[in-house]
Amino acid sequence: MEELKRQVDKDGSFGPTVEIISPFTARVMKAQLPRGKKAPEIRYKGVTDPNDHLAAYQTHMLMHAVEDEIQCRLFVGTLEGPAVKWFLTLPNGTIDCFKDLAQLFLNAYGGRFQPKKHFTHLFSLKQKEGETNSELVQRWNEAINEVEPMDDKTSIALFMNVLRFTFRATNNEAEYEALIGGIQIALFMKIKHIRLKSDSKLAIGQLKGEMEAKEGRLKRYRDCARTLLGQFESYELIYVPREENEEADMLAKLCRTIPIHMEGMVRQHERICPVWEEAIPVLEISGPGTTWMSPLIQYLEKGELPIDPKEARRVQLMAPKYQLDGEKLYKRTLGGPMLKCLSEREARRILEEVHQGVCSAHQGALTLARKVILQGFYWPTLKKDALELVRKCPTCQAFAPIPGRPSTFYTPVTTAIPFARWGLDLVGPFAQGAGRKKFAIVAIDYFTKTIVDGIKKRLHELGTSWVEELSYVLWAHRTTPRRATGETPFALAYGFEAKVPTEVLVPSTRVEAYTPSLNEQLMEVDSHFTQERRDDAAMKAEEYQRQSKRYHDKKAVVRTFEVGDWVLRKREKSQPTKGGKLAQNWEGPYRVEKVVRTGTYQLATSEGKALDNYWNVEHLKKFYQ
To answer: In sequence order, what are the beta bridge partners of 590?
Structure first.
């Protein structure tokens, strides 16, 4: 036993020494990891944006004040898969600080990654003028490949469609309108096999033939739906109880009950007459001099009907409502004078004269349609044409009211470096203004706006000596509990509350019971709880931001534009000196030249000259032409 012990002491070890090979230098490898310190719960596999990963990692490190050497060691724990293999291929002993490691990381993955847009970019995808629904669906499928991955439910939710109608309809007629609207969208999307679900027993029963459609209008709805269903290769009709149809029911109540910000998340279609009336080709022109009145005139004058049986049936149904006087067609009314029927060209002239002629006031669409009726004129698409004319009128658009609701969703901002400072160098003094006044530049960011409020309230008493009061305003800010954190900035920085002037005027309990030796001991103990106090405050601040976002987004009406869209710009922002009671609210139009990011755009004039500044969607509205 003694001989074995002497042999072990002589050799000094049981085997060869293992040398640790690492891309880090010896200085980094010798750094002791704090007990219990682990890498943050974020992982990088080489398929996402390396800048996002670095930003999240560095923010976590800054919040916990981690040393540079420890940052290097912990960063390896956030790598997975191909990223780990890349790290192991780095030369031995070449990384001495986190800056070097971050640069190598960006060089390796920054070039190969093409960042994808956030899926909220799909909100800006709208149907262009003249674009069919099938073309929109094709463009939608192409755009999905350019955004971040999302589940099928989110993709479908972004393509939700809502149908509104402005005419009076019974509950059963409204159910038919919704059902037929869904069928039409499915046909536009070139769907061959469809399963239709509705919470209307009447509509499903009549379409299946289990119930009889006795009322005339419901028979027309049923026939229209059956005609459209015949264009599918197969279809299935299913009745769904109302309590199981909540998602569609929410869309049905869009204009009344759910928050208005949902309107920006759906595509809305407005119908001003029953769907079976829209099927009548009232303005279809088949030859020179032919108008929507031609079939009616032929029938009333000569008894001739169109060759198409369906068209002939429509003409026979419409004829009793009209009367022919010579070559002029009139529409009968209930207890009033007959209305002269106009062709498409005459209707356009009448609408323009009533809306923007000599005795006009650029009134709304419904008022415009009523005035045309009162003046004795009629054509089948009067209300629709009035809506289109008012929407595209340049004068009405320039004087349109400014929306009061937010136009984008709220994005909370948090400062990661609370004690950071920045400076600004100015070359030369500012020029003197009128009355030998000198200008000063004051740069204030979002996080210090409360400082400005405090200065403004004391400015009228102090005049030009407001700078001397700045330290007192800052002290008031630092010793006031913030609503977001529930703590004072001073306590979060130092771990205990400051002694304020009021405690000098009237001693508080802690001042009266102050013992220097005991106070030092208590402060030393409390210093160990400072980080926990900061973490609790950070969580409270995040929850406060979430509450603020929910409150803000309930009121938001999202507006988005694409490159090539024409927009108007707020006059008060672009031409602030041209105000007045009679000044227009908007000026332009301008063309969207570039989408800088969601909600921010670069504009160009109608001549193609790009504007220098970027403009937020808050100051823009769509221009119709």
So the answer is: 567
178 token code pair: 């919704």
Q: Strand 328-331 to strand 193-198: parallel, antiparallel, or no bridges (unpaired)?
A: unpaired
- Residues 375-390: tens digit of each pLDDT: 888 988 888 898 888 8
Assign a CATH topology to domain 566-622. Answer: SH3 type barrels. (2.30.30)
What are the phi and psi torsion angles at 9 (to 5°)? -65, -35
Rg of the chain's alpha carbons, rounded to an integer? Answer: 36
Q: How far apart are CA 307 and CA 299, in angstroms?
A: 12
**Residues 355, 362: Cα–Cα separation, whole Å:** 5
pLDDT at 596 over 70: yes
Sheet of 328-331: strand order equals 322-325, 328-331, 339-341, 377-378
For residue 529, the number of C-alpha atoms closer than 13 Å in the C-beta half-sphere is 8
Residues 435 and 587: beta-carbon distance below 8 Å: no
CB contact at 8 A, 292 and 380:
yes
Give yes or no for a contact between 386 and 369, defined as CB atoms under 8 angstroms apart.
yes
pLDDT tens digits, one per residue of 233-272: 888 888 887 666 655 555 555 444 444 444 444 455 555 5
pLDDT of 81 higher than 50: yes
Asked if 267 contacts 182 with a C-beta cutoff of 8 angstroms, the reply is no
Cα–Cα distance list, 57 to 60, 63, 64, 410 (Å): 5, 10, 11, 24
Number of alpha carbons in the 13 Å side-chain half-sphere of residue 602: 11
CB atoms < 10 A from the CB of 141, how many? 10
Residue 485 to residue 536: CA distance in whole angstroms: 8
* Assigned CATH topology for domain 160-277: Nucleotidyltransferase; domain 5 (3.30.420)
Domain spans of the chain?
20-109, 160-277, 434-443+479-552, 566-622
pLDDT per residue over 140-158, tens digit each? Answer: 667 766 666 665 555 555 5
**Considering the entire predicted model, what is its pTM?**
0.42
Integer CA distances (angstroms), 431 to 399, 425, 439, 443, 463, in order: 38, 16, 8, 18, 22
Q: Which of 142, 260, 118 is nearest to 599 (CA)?
A: 118
